[in-house]
Amino acid sequence: MLTRVLGEPGVDVLEAAHWQGVRKLDDGRTLFCTRLALGSLELGGLGLVVEGAFDGGGGLVMQLVEAIGEQLDSAVLGFLALTDGKGALERLDALSGEPPAASRGHIGRYEVVTPLGTGGMAQVLVARTRGPEGLGRLVALKRILPHLSSDPSIVQQFLDEARIGLRLSHPNLVHFYDFGEAEGASYIAMELVRGVDLERVLRAAKGPLETAHAVAMVCQGLAGLHAAHVLQGEDGAPLE
Question: Cross-referenced InterPro entries, in alphabetical order (predicted)?
């Protein structure tokens, strides 16, 4: 059902349980609906009621509603992880087991599972590749935010990141798998790293880390950075 409604719905929320997208209501208002889910866990739906009709079907408003829904999904994932003491990716692993979750759409050949976070330039989502017999793997899919996809400097920065990342291979660096473009926005498919983040390590330590442990982590990071900085192009010049 519509578990979160912004505005007076004017419809039976049970009737609207399976609605998706834009719906014109009998009273002249418009209802924008998107489903909320984490892996195979259904969280209900989000609806936004707006006065009047919209040119072009209200596509921009629908994008806004979907973005709000993705942020709610991310917040719920973080809350679920905190309640049982697990990391967000550990919790996502449990939620992404078989049977596979219903698709939240596709970006290129990747099936979107759930959002992980959004930065100033791009959004990172958990996505799934699908191969023969349904085989595939989860990846971290980074895509340029829609309102920046036509900015030449942002696109070039993203292309440079993909070009260099696809050539890197080091145990202390995230692996880049693929690069492409879908619906006018570039994306990068990367390794989805499991494990515990540094914030949780520090919280569990309840104090400063042991010197040897801290130095070892810094050295691992520096080794990855060094591998990236000595990488050369086909002409022998450093990659920039």
Answer: Kinase-like_dom_sf, Prot_kinase_dom, Protein_kinase_ATP_BS
